[in-house]
């Protein structure tokens, strides 16, 4: 027997809800019940408890996505599970089509080595602080970056302190003395050894990351691999990723060549040479680079956050590796798995057409402003009419709120958000901050604009 769902809605959205459900031709049966209020977005759990006198034999009750209140308590009161649907009615088909197939992003194969650069100039306390920050964002190993011809008297203390705190640690240098000291201090990995310095691996237990003598010299890498295999020592190979216009394409070919020749060896890619040295948003770079890692079974990356534009690189790499793992496991394209790497754009930025917005605006009978966006621009409307523009400054004189400071401020913030969303192709939801995926910590920037909204002013979209 199919599940029977009860959809609760308001007067303005009832017609559209019925139309969407009819077009969906869902496997479940359903009842649409208009709860006796105009704007469904203003629905609350307490209001439902007071007004809903019949559950129509429902197995589940679906309420608007912005319905406020304790739905668990309401479920107990009604004796039926109550859940929030999507915030936009237009997303209802996707909500039911994807809910049961939500990808599991708890798994990954790629290990992230997060480098603390210029470590000789960083105190032990600051190294530990950064290590915890990197770990929070997904790092598996903390890489201690040395500097050429630079004294590093507190190297051992840094490594031992990190080990005591429970971190896995790598020492990163081309100087043999640095690598020996780091290995003896307890580092788990050494970056980087080549054919001429492999002897260091005989002196310490740390797992070496092996590079060619020169970037293009794969013969030297072959000889180093052979030596380590004969000694039956664990090792990781890094053919070295070069920056754009300085050998990038050739270096990608090197990774492919090494993988074809050695199908089962562990490999590393230093993604920082692209994310740090290319002035473009790093989320897309990380998606592509982790996709290459996924195809070539490269299970280790070295990531950095030196440049300000790369300040979320480790967090992005963490999400990218999880998305690529899920896509590979399910033999699918890396689409519709998680939106966190789409900071600037969205797959469906404008849920409503201009025609639909005009239809809704024509039904409004109160003075409260609603703001929506379409492909054509930003729209604000109430009972007195609808105004559209690309620039909020054009709209302001039409709103007649010059003498109401808090109202003007609120509308200014919301219209500015709507303009940004329209320009970039992002989803705008009134009364909510724009979402930026991995590009920001949404919790830190969130501000409750209801603080500035005049009492009795309804500024939410209709459901």
Summarize the structure.
It is built from 16 helices and 15 strands.
What report would you give on this structure?
The protein folds into three domains: 4-101, Rossmann fold; 111-329, Alpha-Beta Barrel (TIM Barrel); 354-451, no CATH class. Residues 443-452 and 454-463 have low confidence and may be disordered. It is elongated and about 80 Å long. Strands 5-6-7-8-9-10-11-12 form an eight-stranded parallel beta barrel, surrounded by five helices. The protein has a four-stranded parallel β-sheet with strand order 2-1-3-4. A three-stranded antiparallel β-sheet has the order 13-14-15, with helices on both faces. With 463 residues, the protein is of the alpha/beta class. It is 37% helix and 15% strand. Helix 5 links the parallel strand 5 and strand 6 (141-145).
Tally of DSSP β-strands: 15
CATH class of the largest domain: Alpha Beta
Oligomeric state of the chains present here: single chain
Number of helical elements: 16
**Annotated CATH topology of the largest domain:** TIM Barrel
Q: Quick one: CATH superfamily of the largest domain? A: Dihydropteroate synthase-like
Distance from N terminus to C terminus (CA atoms, Å) equals 29 Å
> What's the CATH architecture of the largest domain?
Alpha-Beta Barrel
Tell me, rounded to a whole number, the average pLDDT: 91
For the largest beta-sheet, the strand count, sense and barrel status come to: 8 strands, parallel, barrel
Secondary structure class reads alpha/beta
Shape label: elongated
Residue windows where pLDDT falls under 50 for at least 5 positions = 443-452, 454-463
Strand order of the largest sheet: 5-6-7-8-9-10-11-12
Helix content estimate: 25-40%
Using only CA atoms, what is the Rg?
Answer: 28 Å
β-strand amount: 15-25%
User: How many structural domains?
Assistant: 3
